[in-house]
């Protein structure tokens, strides 16, 4: 990380555990996780398959709740919130970016980016203008009315990034964002992430790929449900 002064704590997880009941047997997937992310950081959570990455991402994204521990997101304790309240947090505070893009095939790029704004109640003329602005920001000015099957994988991921940005979330949560892309396209997407971080966006990225993790400013490693700082050998 550089020496610039970072702002408020966007995410604070303290002693987070997750235990699943697997046919009467208890399986502890996350073991006393402590993680803090400040405004303006770009953090990679690096870990192999089976390390607990998906479970951790689901808790960070308010798609699941921990068995124990506390989780404060953008100043709000989300641990005890009901499903409706969690849905509100997800729509306002978190911009999701998935490996599989998760675009609706029957909607063009502009309409896909507008979706979160519809759910947030933004008026039609405002959301169209904002969606267009976000697509221009990610380099898709000429692709506003292209459908997903008319776009390359990298372009589809850029649409997904534009969609994640449109509600101005507190944090961008990226799950294996280059996993479905070739190496060169993946580098272009990571360059976009770097630019967004330089503009002040807070990014938390989940990945199994050490090369991708190196693009982040800070790396934490998840192994067998235990989180620790570092984890990538110097190149």
How does this model look, in words?
This protein has seven helices and ten strands. It has 235 residues and is an alpha/beta fold. The chain has a single domain (9-229), classed as Rossmann fold (3-Layer(aba) Sandwich). Strand 1 (9-22) and strand 2 form a beta hairpin. Strands 6-7-8-3-9-10 form a six-stranded mixed sheet, sandwiched between helices. Strands 2-1-4-5 form a four-stranded antiparallel sheet, covered by helices on one side. Helix 3 (109-119) packs across helix 4 (124-137), helix 3 (109-119) packs parallel to helix 5 and helix 5 runs parallel beside helix 6. Helix content is 33%, strand content 28%.
């Amino acid at each position: 990380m550089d020496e610039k002064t970072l702002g408020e704590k966007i995410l604070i997880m303290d002693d987070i555990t997750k235990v699943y009941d697997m046919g009467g047997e208890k399986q502890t997937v996350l073991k006393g996780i402590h993680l803090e992310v400040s405004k303006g950081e770009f953090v990679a959570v690096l870990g192999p398959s089976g390390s607990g990455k998906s479970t951790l991402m689901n808790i960070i994204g308010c798609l699941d709740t921990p068995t124990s521990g506390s989780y404060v997101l953008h100043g709000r304790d989300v641990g005890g919130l009901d499903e409706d309240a969690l849905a509100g947090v997800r729509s306002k505070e978190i911009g999701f970016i998935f490996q599989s893009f998760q675009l609706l095939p029957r909607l063009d790029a502009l309409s896909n980016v507008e979706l979160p704004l519809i759910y947030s109640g933004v008026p039609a003329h405002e959301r169209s203008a904002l969606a267009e602005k976000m697509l221009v920001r990610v380099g898709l000015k000429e692709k506003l009315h292209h459908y997903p099957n008319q776009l390359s994988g990298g372009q589809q991921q850029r649409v997904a990034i534009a969609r994640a940005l449109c509600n101005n979330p507190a944090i961008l949560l990226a799950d294996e964002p280059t996993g479905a892309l070739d190496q060169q396209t993946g580098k272009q997407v990571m360059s976009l992430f770097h630019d967004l971080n330089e503009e002040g966006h807070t990014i938390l990225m989940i990945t199994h790929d050490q090369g991708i993790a190196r693009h982040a400013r800070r790396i934490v490693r998840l192994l067998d449900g235990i989180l620790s700082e570092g984890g990538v050998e110097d190149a």
